[in-house]
Write a structure and sequence with these properties.
Largest sheet: 7 strands, mixed
Number of helices: 12
Mean pLDDT: 79
Structural class: alpha/beta
Radius of gyration: 39 Å
Low-confidence stretches: 1-22, 151-167, 170-174, 563-575
Oligomer: single chain
Number of strands: 23
Length: 575
């Protein structure tokens, strides 16, 4: 009676709680490592701890996730593996017990009976091991069959739904038991319920790598299902951060992303990495995108999604999230779109394909040097002795390009607006190839120096003016009569005020120079090329070329100066 009552209670709990039941899926992160074996500052060292914590905080906004067939299969296979290891230990124990009977039992009849009993136990364990191995293969086959039929039928999905009946009286009695659970919802939780709590491992475990068996057993023992790990490569003030997501059990890499940015802005780096990780963690369902191509003529474009080419461009299926779609075709302008495909199962994208208007403009440089000219990332030509202009391809749209000097790799950018993107027109760019970064740094240093002088001069000026004003007030009130002292402080405050005004003027001058130099980083706007400007450019190029030749000839005609320089350098080396 009691037994049947307990069974009814268990059945009631299963019925009432089966719909809302949801397991926990634990996500953790480790401290990031540095790839370069060079000393790092304390700020960079702290970034290795801050970055994974910030990534987990961004993921905390999405607490629910869906399991996958592969993930559930890995969990089941891990259970089978643990069971086989336990059975093998039992098998070894029973075999050792059977072998020891020969030494401990003297009665032959009793020895035979005991050995027979041990052989039965050994055979039973061996059968369990064989059944375990067979179940592994069945589980793999079931998942493969389930994945193969998922796109063609919805019958398999109904199996995964909850039923109020513990069995179906109308089902086939010979139907195979599902060894692997069907995908269901899980609650995303953090290790120790704290996003700032990072996992740490011993050197022995870490040396086994994230996919090693020792590392996997250590992670599974802590009941960790997902682990975020990463590495940092630092060059100057910027760093390349590579983060990976591993799913356990199975130790499979679910995704890797690399983000480049300044370690002073860890928030932005963590947000971009989390944006990539969230779809991998949540296993969001795929979306269907229907593409409608509109063009003057029938065109079959090449469609890529995040750089991956799709053969059937009219119906695209990929995971929900932010994706970049690009459409390109011969003799047509390339179209691209970046959109967050979430919140719905189906989307429609309208793509108007426009024909290319492959016109060309003739680009002149006001200050031509031996250089290479690019337009929209493509090579347009070279500026040389016999070619002081370069044809640039335009499609009636704005063009941004770059001029790179062949001598010192200095460069500058130029911009051709739409109103000048007309075929067979002559345009000119009035820019010079310089090391803009070095110039900006130089002007920045001088601006800070002038500002420091201004700040240092202010205390003396304020003190002398205050002292002089107090003396004047005392003299007017009749309490102070030393005129010489008043005149002395009047001279002091006049000189200090002049110095402060001079420092303020210097700071304003250096600030203007800094801003003008910083503006050199912006593209130089192209203007219509006039005939006199083209002639001036030719004269400038000839003058600069002649001065270069004269400089080389002067060095060649004065070998003693060159020899003295070499001898002095050799002396320095010897010293």
């Amino acid at each position: 009676m009691k037994k049947s009552f307990r069974c009814c209670i268990v059945l009631f709990l299963l019925i009432s709680g089966g719909v809302s039941f949801c397991d926990n899926w634990t996500l953790a992160a480790t401290k990031f490592t540095f790839t370069r074996k060079t000393p790092v500052s304390s700020a960079q060292e702290s970034a290795a701890t801050i970055l994974p914590s910030l990534i987990l905080e961004r993921i905390a906004d999405s607490p629910a996730r869906m399991t996958t067939d592969e993930e559930l299969l890995d969990r089941k296979l891990n259970e089978y593996l643990t069971e086989r290891q336990s059975l093998f230990l039992q098998l070894s124990k029973e075999v050792q017990t059977r072998d020891s009977l020969v030494l401990t039992e003297d009665n032959p009849r009793k020895l035979k009976k005991l050995i027979a009993a041990e052989n039965e136990k050994i055979e039973e364990i061996q059968q369990q091991i064989q059944e375990n191995i067979s179940n592994c293969e069945k589980a793999k086959a079931q998942v493969e069959k389930r994945k193969a039929g998922a796109e063609n039928t919805e019958e398999d999905e109904s199996k995964g739904r909850f039923s109020f009946f513990p069995f179906n009286p109308f089902s086939d009695s010979e139907e195979e038991e599902d060894l692997v659970d069907y995908p269901s919802a899980e609650t995303l939780v953090f290790y120790n319920n704290d996003s700032t709590s990072l996992l740490s491992f011993s050197d022995e475990i870490t040396a086994d790598a994230y996919t090693g068996r020792k590392f996997e057993k250590e992670v599974v023992s802590k009941k960790i299902n997902g682990l975020i790990c990463g590495s940092i490569t630092v060059y100057g003030d910027y760093a390349s951060v590579t983060a990976s997501l591993y799913i356990y059990p199975g130790a499979k890499n679910a995704g890797t992303v690399t983000e480049v940015g300044s370690l002073n802005d860890c928030m932005s780096i963590a947000s971009n990495i989390a944006r990539y990780m969230i779809p991998k963690i949540l296993n969001s369902r795929p979306v269907e995108v229907n593409v409608n191509i509109s063009s003057e003529e029938e065109v079959i474009p090449v469609v890529t999604v995040d750089g991956v080419v799709f053969s059937n461009y009219s119906r695209l299926i990929f995971d929900s999230g932010i994706h970049t779609l690009e459409f390109s075709a011969k003799n047509y302008m390339t179209k691209s779109i970046t959109y967050n495909f979430e919140g719905d199962r189906k989307f429609t994208v309208e793509v108007p394909m426009e024909k290319e208007n492959k016109g060309q403009v003739l680009l002149y440089l006001r200050y031509p040097v031996l250089s290479t000219v690019y337009a929209d990332g493509k090579l347009s030509g070279k500026i040389a002795d016999d070619m002081l202009s370069v044809p640039v391809t335009v499609n009636g749209n704005a063009v941004i390009g770059q001029v790179v000097s062949d001598s010192d790799s200095s460069y500058y950018f130029y911009y051709i607006p739409e109103n000048l993107s007309e075929s067979m027109s002559d345009i000119m760019v009035k820019g010079k190839s310089t090391d803009v970064a070095a110039q900006i740094e130089k002007r920045r240093i001088w601006m800070y120096r002038s500002y420091s002088l201004l700040v240092l001069s202010l205390p003396f000026t304020l003190y002398s003016q205050g002292r002089y004003q107090n003396m004047v007030n005392g003299y007017n009130a009749g309490t102070y009569t030393n005129v010489d002292e008043i005149n002395k402080w009047n001279t002091y405050q006049t000189i200090s005020t002049g110095v402060t005004i001079g420092c303020a003027c210097l700071f304003a001058f250096e600030l203007v120079r800094y801003l003008r130099t910083a503006n050199k980083a912006l593209p130089v706007y192209a203007v219509p090329a006039k005939e006199r400007d083209i002639l001036k450019a030719e004269d400038w190029y000839k003058a600069s070329l002649n001065s270069m030749i004269e400089e080389k000839l002067s060095v060649k005609n004065n070998p003693e100066e060159d020899t003295s320089v070499k001898s002095s350098s050799d002396t320095d080396i010897n010293n």
